[in-house]
Every structure is written in C-alpha cells, then in structure tokens.
Amino acid sequence: MAGYILRRLLQAIPVLLGTTFLIYFMVFAMPGDPIVALFGDKTPPPQVIEALRERYNLDKPFIVQYLIFLGNIFTGDLGVSFSGQPVSEILMDTFPVTLRLAAMAVFFEMVAGISIGLVSGLRKGGIFDASSLVVSLILISLPIFVLAFVMQWFFGIYLGWFRTTVGPGAPTQDLILPAIVLATISFAQIVRLTRASVIDTDGQDFVRTAASKGLSRGRIVPVHILRNSLIPVVTYLAVDFGTLMVGATVTEGIFNVPGVGRTLYQAIIRGEGPTVVSFVTIMVLIYLVVNLLVDLLYAVLDPRIRYAK
Amino acid sequence: MKIKRIGVAAIALAAAGALTLSGCTSGGADPSAPAGDATAVITTNGSEPQNPLIPTNTNEVGGGKILDAIFAGLVYYDAKGAAHNDVAESIETDDAQTYTIKLKADQKFTNGEPVTANSFVDAWNYGADTANEQLSQYFFESIKGFSYEESVPELPGLTVVDDTTFTVELNQPESDFPLRLGYSAFYPLPESAFEDLATFGENPVGNGTYMLDGEGAWKHNEKIDLVVNPDYDGPRQAANGGLDIIFYASQDAAYADLQGGNLDVLDAIPDSALATFQDEFGDRSVTQAAAIFQSFTIPARLPHFSGEEGNLRRQAISMAINRDEITDVIFAGTRTPAHDFTSPVIDGYSEDIPGSEVLDYNPEEAKKLWAQADAIAPWDGTFKIAYNADGGHQAWVDAVANGLKNDLGIDAAGDPYPTFAEARTKITDRTIQTAFRSGWQADYPALFNFLGPLYGTGAGSNDGDYSNPEVDTLLKEGLAETDIAAANEKFQAAQEILFQDLPAVPLWYSTVNGAWSEVVNDVEFGWNSVPLYYQVTKSE
C-alpha cells in the first residue's frame, strides 16, 4: 500500500511539470500585451511600457520566464498579482471558500442523489422511478446559469429566504443556495448512476445467496446492495469534487462567491500570468490528490480490490 | 483617467434618454421625507483595485472610486463637472504657465500628520519620476523638467514657498491645469507613505471625506470598508456614516443584490436589465450622459485615406452611418449619437459646431462625395473596422459595415481581434492596417482633454498619427487663454477643422445608468459617472 502511494506521488511530478509548462506556454502565447491593455484606450509612452515589462519579466524569452517561475515556485514564492498581493495570499483567501462550497455541494448531491437513486433502483419501473427519471432528465438538460439565475431570483429576491449573493466573508448560510445550484446538475447524474448500479447489484449471485441464507431485506439493502453499488458513484463524486474545487466559474460569478473560479477568471481577463499559473498548479495538485484518494477508497469499498506493492 | 475598459467592461455604461435625477425635482423636497441617519453606512458596488491604492499608480475605476473617497485634492468636481477648491485656499496665475497654490491652514491626514505644500510636491515628484514607473505618470508631463527618458527625483517646476504655499511652473501655458487638480494622480501623500509605499498601498492614509475602517479594511476580492474621517472639514462633508464598497465580478450579481435589498447604490446596470430597470426603480434610477466618447479611427497611412481623396472618403463614410438608428436599435437608446469630438457633460460642449452636419445621416451626399473621391483615384479593396471581440462591439461594427455596403456600394466588414489586449497591442505598435474602434474617457472635465491627447501632432494617444498644424496651433492658443470661454472658442475652432479631416469618425457618447434602494436619498452622479457618495443620505 505504502509503495503504491509512493509510486503515485512520484508519477505526479512529471504531470505537474508538464501541466505548468503547458499552461505557462498558453498564457504566454495569448495574443496581445497585458501591459498595453492596462492602460485601456490610452496609449502610454513607450518608456513606461518597457519599464513595466521589465518589472514583470515580460521582456525575457518564454523559456527564461518559465524557469524563473519554476525556480520561484520551489522557493515557495508564487509571485505577486498586479495589485501587489502575493499570489500565495490570494490562494489562502480563496481556496477555503471554494472548498466549503464544493464540500456542501457534494454533500447535498450525495445525500439526495444516493437515497433517491437507491429507492428508484429497488422499485424499478414504479411511479417513483418514472418520476425521478423525468425530474433528473429535466435537471440534466438545464444550463447551469439558467438554473442559477432562476434560483437567485426565486429564493433570493422573490421569497427573500436567502441573500441574493454571497456576503463578505462568505458565511456558510450564504453558500447554501449556490451549493444547491451546483449540486442540482450532478444530483441528476448520481440518481441515474446509483439506480443503474443498484439494479445491477440486486441481480448478483451474492445478493441471492444472502437472501436464501435468510437475511432480512433491511440488512441486505444497506450492507450487500448499497455498499457494492457505490463504486461508480464514489468515482463520480470524487471527480465532481475535483471539478468543483478548481472553481465553478459561472456559479461563483452569478453569486459573487470570492472563490477560486471567480478569481481565476479575473486573472485571465487581466492577463496576470503568475496568478493564473500558480492557481492552475495548485488545481492540478488537488486533482491528483483527489484521484489518488478515490483509488484508495475502492479498496475500502470492495475487499476484492487490493493494491499490491 | 479612470479606465473602465471601454473595450471589455464598458458595455455596461449605457442608455440615453431623459435625465431623471432624483431629489432634483420640485416635488423631491418633501419635508416629511425622513432625514438621513448620520451614522448609516451606505453600501455600493465596486471592483477589486488592480493596483495598490497609491494615487499616482491607480488608473482604473475600481481603485479610483476608493481613492476619491479617502483623499481630498486641491480641487473637487461637483455633479456638473465644475471644479471648486477643496484643500486649496487659492490657485492663481497670470500667464497660465506659473501657478501659485495656497492651501487651507490646519489640514490633517488621518494619521495626524499635517497636510502641507510638501505633501503635494513630494507626491507629485514621486509620481512624475520615471524610476517609479507610475501608471499615471503622464499627468505630470507638462510640469517643467519632466522627462520620460531619465529619472528626475525632484521636478524643477515645483517649488515649495512655505508650509502652505507652493508654485508650479509648466513647460508652456496650459489654462486647464487647475481643472486637472481634482484627479487622483494629484492627491497629496503623508510623509510616512514614502517609507514603504507597498505597505501604504494596502492601508492608505488620506485626508478625504472617508478613511479606512482600521488596518486591513481592504478585504481583497471582497470589499473595503470606509468610515467618516472626523478631521475632514472641507466642502465634501459626509451626510452618512460611512461607505462599504463591495467588489462584484459581474454586474448581474450586483444588480441582483440591489433587487434583494443588500445594496444601496449601484452605478452600473447589467445589459440584461437595461430594458427593465427604469420600470422597476422609477425615480430611484438615473440615465445620464457620460464623459465617454466613442469613435473609429482611420489612420492616414491607409491607402486612399490621405490628402483630398482621404477627406472626401472619410466624410462620405461618416455620412453613411445612421447613428440614430444604431443607437436606437442596437443599443436600445443606451448611447447618444455624437455631435462633436467631446461629451455633453463637459463645460463648453456644443451640438452645433459648424461642420458637424457631417455626422448626420445623408446617403445621397455620401454617395456624391465617394464618387468625387473615386474621380481622384478609384477605390479598391475592402473597408475594414478592427475591434476587440470581447467587448460587445460586433453588433454595431456589423451595422456600420452594412450601412457602408448599402449606401456607398463598397465592400465593408468588421475585423475582430479576440481580446482587448491584442487589439490594443496592434494599434499601439502601428501594425494595424485597417480602421479601428477607438474611444476616450475624460481624465478631467475639459474640452482640451478630448482633443489634445488624441489629435495633437505626436500626442500620446494619437493612434491614427493625425497631424494638422492648424489644429495644433488652435489647441496651443486655447491652452494659453486664461479665460475659459475664450479658450473653449479656440477648441471649438479646432473641432471645425476636425470635422473636415475626420481623423476619427465620431459615433456616440456612452451613458451611465444607475439605480438605488428605497432606504437612500439624494443620490446624484458626478460628471465622471461615479455617484457623489458623500451627499447620499440613508434612513432605516
């Protein structure tokens, strides 16, 4: 097990180098000079442009810029945004907010999705199953911004149950609405996934064996069916969590959540290379870690899966 | 200048129509209306400053809005754009070239330091010094001794006479210099700021109506909290208890907060609500012209666009644009058709400058002029207008191009660049070989600011490389006049020539749209489209 984890961590190094290089290259290749854009429609004197370019190392060749960046990363210096704030500080400010939002969304979709999916699967073809199919199809086909605007208007403005946007400090009660929006889309997927998996497991030999041993349905369902049905669902949830962690740009924008997605979007618009690359680097790291955790979780859920040395 | 990213974000600024300033109507002075609570804090929208909060290094609205609240300059602008003394006791000159500036006595920064002549001179010297790479450096370029090439730590043109008096000597007479002094680049700095400007920019210490609510009041990407500065005794006295500026990533989110009662004053209505916000907020909304001029520039270096032939073609193109229809249909009335090269909010503006008929839609005349140009040299190729595709420009560019196709019978098309940065880079390094979208937001409320930097020979933002000695002379003469009316006459004469040459084809002026909640009163928008927060009252 330890050897497996170590091997996975070592694999992460080339992945990280490769992604940062690619991202850096793409930011670099973006047409246009961010320094010129800083001045809007005014044209600054050429000396001023030169001086600013020098300050942000934009006058150096691409590969030199990248090496400077890498060197700084290894010394723990993630650079400074145009507003003079250390990127590490921005990360510290925004990641906890996104983490809370993602955790809440995953919690909502997990609880609702798995329980409805389980019931649908066990009562395949019933009224409950049919109506959950219709509802989840509707939810899957809704673009997230439509859902976000409608929920914001209905719960925030019309009913006034929630704050329309997330207030300063991103208090947890303000995050409920955006978390529900984020959860809604994946919720439908999880219902479908759980249902299919439950139906599949229900027909397995070991379930019949358990039933013929005289075990009650109340024991078979949670221990034998549900647990064995969860593997695809857990994979999906983990990947979803990873996706949410790297920022739900649209939802964060609509609800003004001071999280990763909104910050990254603004950094891209401003052409702030260091901020963008540092954010993405951390995101890649999170993705790698989440995926590793999922693989380890398989072993817990299914005793047949073992990671050899 | 406060960049609102005319390219990227300023699709926001929109809407024309009737002026519906609340509190200005005769019925507005209702004696039974609840008086404002002097301790109530106003919440308003803003955006994360792009730079540390240092006056000479802030050139965008996000930071500018905060600086204007926490600093007091020599002068301030009222809602009409007229300048009045703030920290200055008097600003005097005989020749429009040397100014003697006297400060009011006993002014203080919020850390207790006195505001002296040195507070201004040191701050300006810092901003002007090339070594400090300040974004607003160009504001000091007319002061004697200024240089972009070498570092000048102390401008010879700035002399401290005593604690409350200093003199400014300019390179040439510039009568609108006092008008500029309300701009944030000219704010004073306390001596302690220079010990570590980076730290200062995080927790700036000013002398204005408001001050930061303690260390760390600037919560990055979230908001900044301002409270009333008890020591400020200037003309911009706060009628409320403070100002919380909340940073929004999208105008839609800010608008939803206004509707949901979480925001008091909003100074930008999202596109999605432009058609409805007036119905929803009624007399709690405003639509007024902004000091933003939109055009497209046809560089003289393009084939067929120089000399007599070029002028005929430019005039023909201008007359083939139906500005009324485009502003009406495409912008739903959120732009006002242009009648000159400046803006209606500027003192001295006139709709009827001789020659401005060239901005009226006149397809017959356009055809005639185009044919005359063809007689000089026959037209070939496609007329293209470059624009940044991330700024919502496609609709009007296509409309203009279609108009040219139909009325002049030539091939015309838009030429989109993916980003604002790319378009600006091509324009700045002169590699662009087409006409291109251009715009100007005024730095300070004066006609010259719309003309000098754009059409003076070799001027900083003269991206079309226009040059006409007559215009240069008139602009220079206008600057030398100490009487504003006389100066404006010269500037209008310069515009008459511009109507002939059309270095840029004027299109329309932007407008600002705002709305506010039921709990606030006395909301008025300034000439620069930012609400005058100090006079807003709030009752709860």
Could you please describe the fold and organization of this structure?
Chain B: GO terms for molecular function: peptide transmembrane transporter activity. Chain B: One of its GO terms (cellular component) is periplasmic space. Chain B: This is Oligopeptide transport system substrate-binding protein. Chain B: InterPro entries: Peptide/Ni-bd, SBP_5, SBP_5_dom. Chain B: Residues 1-20 form the signal peptide. Chain A: Keywords: Cell membrane, Membrane, Transmembrane, Transmembrane helix, Transport. Chain A is built from 13 helices and no strands. The longest helix of chain A has 36 residues, at 87-122. The mean pLDDT of chain A is 82. Chain A has a domain at 95-257: MetI-like fold (Orthogonal Bundle), CATH 1.10.3720.10. In chain A, helix 9 runs antiparallel to helix 10. Chain A is mainly α. The termini of chain A are close together. The longest helix of chain B is centred in the C-terminal third of the chain and has 18 residues, at 484-501. Chain B has 540 residues and is α+β, with helices and mostly antiparallel strands. Chain B has helices at 61-70, 117-128, 177-180, 197-202, 251-259, 277-281, 307-319, 323-329, 363-376, 394-408, 420-428, 447-455, 469-480, 484-501, and strands spanning 41-46, 75-77, 83-85, 88-93, 98-103, 158-162, 165-169, 210-212, 218-219, 223-228, 242-247, 265-266, 285-297, 335-337, 382-388, 411-417, 435-441, 504-516, 520-521, 537-538. Chain B has a domain at 292-509: Roll (Dipeptide-binding Protein, domain 3). In chain B, strand 4 and strand 5 form a beta hairpin. In chain B, helix 13 runs antiparallel to helix 14. Chain B is globular, with a radius of gyration of 24 Å. Chain B has 14 helices and 20 strands. The two termini of chain B are 36 Å apart. In chain B, strands 12, 13, 14, 15, 16, 17 and 18 form a 7-stranded mixed β-sheet that branches. In chain B, strands 1, 8, 9, 10 and 11 form a 5-stranded mixed β-sheet that branches. In chain B, 26% of the residues lie in helices and 20% in strands. Classes of the chains: A mainly alpha (309), B alpha+beta (540). At the A-B interface, helix 2, helix 3, helix 5, helix 7 and helix 11 of A face helix 4, helix 5, helix 11 and strand 17 of B.
